[in-house]
Amino acid sequence: MTDLSDTDARIERLPLLDAILSRLRDMIIEGQLPPGTRLNEGQIGLQLGVSRTPLREAIKYLASEGLVELIPSRGAVVKQFGAREVRDMLEVIRILEQQAGIIACAQATDAGIAGVRALHDRMLDCYARRDRMAYYKLNQAIHTAIVALAANGALSEVHARLQTRLKRIRFIGHEGAEKWASAVAEHEQMIAALESRDADRLSEILGRHLTLAWERVRDDLPAQT
Amino acid sequence: MTDLSDTDARIERLPLLDAILSRLRDMIIEGQLPPGTRLNEGQIGLQLGVSRTPLREAIKYLASEGLVELIPSRGAVVKQFGAREVRDMLEVIRILEQQAGIIACAQATDAGIAGVRALHDRMLDCYARRDRMAYYKLNQAIHTAIVALAANGALSEVHARLQTRLKRIRFIGHEGAEKWASAVAEHEQMIAALESRDADRLSEILGRHLTLAWERVRDDLPAQT
DNA sequence: GTTCTGTGTGCTGTATACAGAATTATTGAT
DNA sequence: ATCAATAATTCTGTATACAGCACACAGAAC
């Protein structure tokens, strides 16, 4: 079973809203609710064991997050991203990551950089085992960590929001062995540039990396929405 | 005065949710609901003439937007932004606007650029009349328009989201006459650089402009949250 | 005088009820 | 058999009802 969630046991103690949000996000990311699907409040509420009221509140939250779209008198629909929109989002992510990388090279602590390296090493491990799911998660975690090194809350938040929207799409993309290998190699260069605090080089590698990410998914996407 | 019916007729045709969202945003931006205020659902619902159910849905939407904060068992509180957070957001806005400006110089249509110039001229008019409110709105519209020239939906959306959060803060800032004059001058340079499609120069001016915006508001802010 | 505890009030969180729009099924005519 | 019109059903949008938690205040114990 494809479990993309980073939920933990704490969820029982959090307000119901958070639990519903996690579940809905997972259902969307895992493809259980494919893009274009109308969210039937009655059915989902029954499935999740909650009434429509908190469920609707969660849906409104997701709408603001951009995962679903609200259509008057017709409820919520899982948002369908066209090729153009994905390209746009990846471009913004590229801008954010490049800038974050530059800032990180200038002011990140050595410990912070070591933390990214540690994630990278764990990712290499997953690559060696061909554990796609774990690799995928660590991959995202590394990009998130690099952004976090810039120590700018707004930057991290915006980046995370865009990354969430793309989770499903990037998860689908099952690249071939050689593309996977080159992605790993790029990551290695990335970490090296960060460790030597070479901002220009890191920015360049990140730019190339994100461009490749785009090329990797472009063909799997529906044409213009 | 605070009644949904006194806004324009269109509101009747839009879903109630949008109307509530607009009203709440306005109440927050205008300072009617100062940062730190607990949103009393009963009272606000009464004031707006709606029941708690759609109101709560709107509040969840605003929470995802970052204007309010949800506190378990204690409802929603108008988010208080500290100096650090505002600086972070302005820095991200700077990054986004600079990049948008560069793209705009490369690929905006002449008509698009002319549109920005038109907004600028109207803004100069407001400056001449010392109409602060109209000036303020056109100022924001110009920045939004420049970002829009990059023709990247995700970029515009992220920019708008951050700008919304800062609206209240920038709205408070009543700069003195000389600072106002220099801000106008900067805008003039900005438009000129855009018209001559000088990406480097536009980027530099935008960077300076946003840095000044930060210096203009920094003293009015509460210390670290 | 201070601290602790019990009670009351108000508010949030969730469920249910109801009205109206949208969708689907049905019936009748061509 | 196809299509139109209409009836039936489903689902959304909103209001209301109720349970439980949080905070405030008052009184008792020390």
Please describe what this structure looks like.
The structure is a homodimer of 225-residue chains. The first copy, chain A, contains nine helices and two strands; from the N terminus they run H-H-H-E-E-H-H-H-H-H-H. The N terminus of chain A is likely disordered. In chain A, helix 4 crosses helix 6, helix 4 packs across helix 7 and helix 6 runs antiparallel to helix 7. Chain A has two domains: 70 residues, Orthogonal Bundle (Arc Repressor Mutant, subunit A), CATH 1.10.10.10; 138 residues, Four Helix Bundle (Hemerythrin (Met), subunit A) (Up-down Bundle), CATH 1.20.120. In chain A, 69% of the residues lie in helices and 4% in strands. Chain A is mainly alpha-helical. In chain A, strands 1-2 form a two-stranded antiparallel ribbon. At the A-B interface, helix 3, helix 4 and helix 7 of A face helix 3, helix 4 and helix 7 of B. Chain A binds a DNA duplex (30 and 30 nucleotides) through helix 3.
The whole-number mean of residue pLDDT values of chain A reads 90
Tally of strands of chain A? 2
| The CATH architecture of the largest domain in chain A | Up-down Bundle
Overall 3D form of chain A: globular
| CATH fold-level name of the largest domain in chain A | Four Helix Bundle (Hemerythrin (Met), subunit A)
Oligomer: homodimer
Low-confidence stretches of chain A: 1-13
Assign the structural class of chain A, choosing from mainly alpha, mainly beta, alpha/beta, alpha+beta, or little secondary structure.
mainly alpha
Relative helix content of chain A: 55-70%
Largest sheet of chain A: 2 strands, antiparallel
Alpha-carbon Rg of chain A, integer: 19 Å
How many domains, in number, for the residues of chain A?
Answer: 2
CATH class of the largest domain in chain A: Mainly Alpha
> What fraction of the residues of chain A are assigned to beta strands by DSSP?
under 5%
Number of helices of chain A: 9
